[in-house]
Amino acid sequence: MRDFATLVRTMKHYYLGLDCSTQSFTAIVLEQDGEPASTRILVEKSIHFDTTYPEFGTRNGVLPAGSGVAHTPPQLWVRALEDILDALKKEGIPLQNIEAIGVSGQQHGSVYLNASAEKKLASLDFTQGLAEQLENVYSRKTSPIWMDATTSEECREIAASLGGDDAVCALTGSRCFERFTGPQIRRFFKTEPKNYAETAHICLVSSFIPSLLAGKIISIDPGDGAGMNLMNISTRAWSLEALNATAPDLATKLLPVQESDSIAAGISAYFTARFGFSPSCKILPGTGDNPASLVGLGLVSSGVIGVSLGTSDTLFTYMSSVHTDPGGASHVFGSPTGAYMAISVYKNGSLAREAVRTKHGLTWESFSNLLGRTPPGNQGRVMLPYFDTEIIPRIGKPGVQRYGFSDQDVEAEVRAVIEAQMASMFLHSAWMGEKPSRIQATGGASNNREILQIMANVFGVPVMRQETSNSAALGAAIRAQHVVVKKDGEVSFEILARPHLRTPFTLNPDLEAHHSYQKFVLAYRKYEEDYIRDLG
Ligand code: XUL
Q1: Are residues 334 and 239 in the same domain?
Q2: CA of 289 to the centre of ligand 1 (A)
Q3: Which residues form the pocket of ligand 1, taking CB atoms under 6 Å from any ligand atom?
């Protein structure tokens, strides 16, 4: 007869990862067959917000508005959560066997709940829809998200009361940034004091979704908590000083920070009754999409860089201890593994690529073909791709700059936007340390080999792509698996991520192209510096 441990190792286990991103909601179910390292993606499903829910009126996941405002109705995310679970159930995915659920969310976005929310979440009627029962739990109908750029004044005020930019960076891991949740909360308090006073709980997108699943408010983790300018990056707990500099009574609206690699709650009766989850299914604290991608890409030791080409482009790497960006442009966040990560974030990611593509009526295929027609360095033609305001470098108003070509020159424009993105990432990540041994790419645009080849040539290192471009949802599922399997002994995140790093391709740098890019990035830096100086 087989002993119990052998039996457990030969059983199948299931874990669910959810990612609520800017434009879509994704679910990945991992199936573990026997040992923890033998997993496969059983199903991967996404719901696109604009096309599935036209009634919310979003464009690229955001409500249209002017002057730097970027909000999304939280009810859209609630609808997507229930619809994606419905779709998994209809497909016959064994939801009753899911042992744990990990969540990832676009970072910084905040959800404001009134005093009725906690009671409502705990007493949902499973015969009715989720969104329809939650209509009245908000003290703010829309959520400011990471693209919002309206809080420059609040950033200055918070920085001034905490002793200046460098002091805020040393305390929280980042200077004050417009999209960070603290400045956003301060603006809400200043512009809508009554609604702020009626707010009983403030969640991030990444803690809101687990709170729905748990039927109670769940803590924020240090991965996403670090994106608020409210958490002491060294102690990974709220900084009272930062809370007080932001808004009154803020401590009462937040639960204590909870480490990511832990269990926050069991699943609520609503989800067991409606979708068939087992009452023993565990809910983890959520984390940000970038910290989740760090896990999904297996970047849990130094020397490898992750690049996510999504709505935002981000470049990140593991960090064993806190070391902040001396230039103040990038950030240090908590990593779900318990350590840290360094990250640079660009607003002009896929929206800039998309703007060039649609302006010239191109398909992605013709976009790639055009990239093949121009040489590395684009014969000196350079673009500063500020289709929107930018985070790195900080550019307060949109304005694309073209040097040596007109906006009708399609070939020049296609190469210029990609080379600008890569050069900027290369220049602004230098502070993170040694040259990496390789880059792991993820996000929608990582399906495009020509773009990745330019990345390899600019950085001078191989670029790999893994099997899924949804590394945040995968990272969320791996976190769920880790919390369950670690009880049987030390199992590293690296081992759990490995089965999914089977790369469809690796692109090696072309050394001649890399050589010309070394001059190109210096020229790019000069254009960037001159432009910023001229802006004043
Ligand atoms: C990170 C950031 C974005 C969002 C959206 O600081 O602002 O990457 O997480 O993906």
Answers
A1: no
A2: 7
A3: 22, 106-108, 146, 179, 227, 288-290, 310-312, 314, 345
**143 CA → ligand 1 middle, Å:** 15
Specify the pairing of strand 201-204 against strand 39-48.
Answer: unpaired
Rounded to the nearest angstrom, the distance between the alpha carbon of 182 and the centre of ligand 1 is 15
Parent domain of 508: 298-467+501-536
pLDDT digits (tens, 9 = 90+) for 118-155: 999 999 999 999 999 999 999 999 999 999 999 999 99
**140 and 98 in a common domain:** yes
Mutation choice for ligand 1 from 343, 345, 350, CB with most ligand atoms inside 8 A: 345
pLDDT tens per residue across span 484-515: 999 877 789 999 999 998 777 899 999 999 99
Check residue 1 and give its pLDDT: 46
Q: Tokens in use for 63?
A: 């409500």
Mutate which of 24, 104, 179, 347 for ligand 1 pocket (most atoms within 8 A of beta carbon): 179
Say which residues have a Cβ less than 8 Å from residue 189's Cβ, sequence separation at least 6.
196, 246, 247, 248
| Number of folded domains that form the chain | 2
478 within some domain: no
Q: Give the CATH number of the domain where residue 446 resides.
A: 3.30.420.40
Is the pTM above the cut of 0.90? yes
Question: Which tens digit of pLDDT belongs to each residue from 227-264?
Answer: 999 999 999 999 999 999 999 999 999 999 999 999 99
Strands in 49-195 per DSSP E: 71-72, 98-105, 110-113, 143-144
- φ, ψ for residue 134 (rounded to 5)? -105, 5
Please provide the DSSP assignment of 146-175 as one string. Answer: TT----HHHHHHHHHHTTSHHHHHHHHSS-
Do 284 and 347 lie in a common domain?
no
Best substitution site from 22, 24, 108 to test ligand 1's pocket, by max atoms within 8 Å of Cβ?
108
Assess whether 12 and 149 both reside in one domain.
yes
